[in-house]
């Protein structure tokens, strides 16, 4: 995102930009939550290794809004501090955040980028998800992500939607064993600029809130950081999809198929901009910015082609200096 925004604001200071996994057109009112959900259930369906995994996942998620505390407890859900009137809604958001992020980082090799996970973690989760939409199986799949270290005794539902001061993790510390992405700093960004991108699910999961949750986000931001979001500032300051495709040059929006964040640039056509130098590509079989990670023998052909395209395009940009 920073690469694209820099190119947008200061085109005279760069030759071009590779924006990988960069949802620069991801704003309230665009139906992004449903698109995000559809994108990550696609990953479970196509790459889960179990026939119908995406459909089974959807069944489980659809049961959550009407689940009782007793049903969640029987499924193994242990909220830090116990259940209260908000627990069901909060757990639904928590679970979606964890599972969408599992799709995001479904690398074909072991990786500790966010949480220490084995190769193909979506396949591991799909082995647990029951075709009948079992809440216990769904929660077991959630735990493969948020409790990869086995050190999590309870799920901190109160840390959802940019966290609260009464979070049950001391000083909002990350779960042991992960790299945490600077949870507090990122959530401050969500509270000031990146409104639809709070870090959730014990500091690791991502899931965009819908319109009905925005007021709660604003209240939590005021309580935790003393600031309130400006939800309509970013599209004015940094543009929407059509601005990039119409007015800019030399940007590669490289999206990866498994990564649900690719829905944040669907408004940008495959080829556009001055001299058709703004390009959006969807890399088959790739996880979050896998094109920018180290090469691996397990990379899909799509990822290999993406890297080659990026290399050749940058060489062409430099050749025209």
Q: Helix and strand layout, with pairings?
A:
Elements: H1 2-9, E1 17-20, H2 32-47, H3 53-63, H4 69-74, H5 87-104, H6 121-126, H7 135-146, H8 183-192, E2 199-200, H9 201-204, E3 205-206, H10 211-225, H11 233-238, H12 241-247, E4 251-256, E5 271-272, E6 278-283, H13 301-319
Parallel strand pairs: 1-4, 4-6
Antiparallel strand pairs: 2-3, 5-6
Helix pairs in contact: 2-3, 2-5, 5-7
Short recap of the structure:
The protein is an alpha/beta fold. The protein has helices at 2-9, 32-47, 53-63, 69-74, 87-104, 121-126, 135-146, 183-192, 201-204, 211-225, 233-238, 241-247, 301-319; strands at residues 17-20, 199-200, 205-206, 251-256, 271-272, 278-283.
């Amino acid at each position: 995102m920073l690469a694209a925004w820099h190119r947008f604001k200061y085109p005279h200071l760069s030759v071009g930009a590779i924006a990988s996994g960069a949802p620069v057109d991801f704003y309230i009112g665009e139906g992004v939550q449903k698109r995000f959900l559809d994108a990550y259930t696609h990953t479970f369906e196509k790459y889960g290794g179990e026939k119908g995994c995406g459909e089974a996942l959807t069944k489980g998620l659809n049961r959550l809004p009407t689940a009782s505390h007793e049903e969640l407890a029987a499924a193994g859900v242990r909220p830090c501090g116990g259940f209260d009137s908000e627990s069901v809604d909060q757990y639904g958001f928590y679970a979606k955040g964890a599972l969408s992020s599992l799709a995001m980082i479904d690398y074909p090799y072991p990786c500790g980028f966010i949480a220490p996970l084995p190769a193909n973690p979506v396949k591991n989760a799909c082995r647990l998800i029951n075709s009948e939409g079992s809440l216990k199986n769904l929660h077991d799949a959630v735990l493969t992500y948020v409790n990869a270290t086995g050190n999590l005794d309870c799920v901190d539902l109160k840390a959802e939607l940019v966290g609260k001061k009464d979070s049950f993790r001391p000083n909002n510390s990350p779960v042991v064993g992960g790299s945490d992405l600077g949870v507090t700093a990122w959530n401050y960004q969500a509270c000031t600029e990146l409104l639809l991108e709070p870090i959730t699910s014990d500091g690791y999961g991502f899931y965009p809130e819908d319109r009905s949750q925005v007021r709660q986000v604003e209240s939590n931001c005021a309580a935790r950081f003393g600031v309130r979001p400006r939800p309509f500032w970013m599209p004015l300051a940094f543009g929407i999809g059509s601005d990039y495709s119409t007015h800019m040059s030399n940007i590669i929006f490289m999206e990866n198929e498994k990564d649900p964040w690719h829905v944040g640039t669907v408004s940008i056509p495959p080829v556009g901009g001055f001299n058709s130098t703004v390009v959006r590509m969807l890399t088959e079989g790739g996880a979050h910015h896998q094109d920018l990670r180290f090469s691996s023998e397990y990379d899909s052909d799509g990822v290999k082609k993406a890297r080659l395209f990026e290399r050749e395009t940058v060489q062409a940009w430099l050749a025209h200096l």
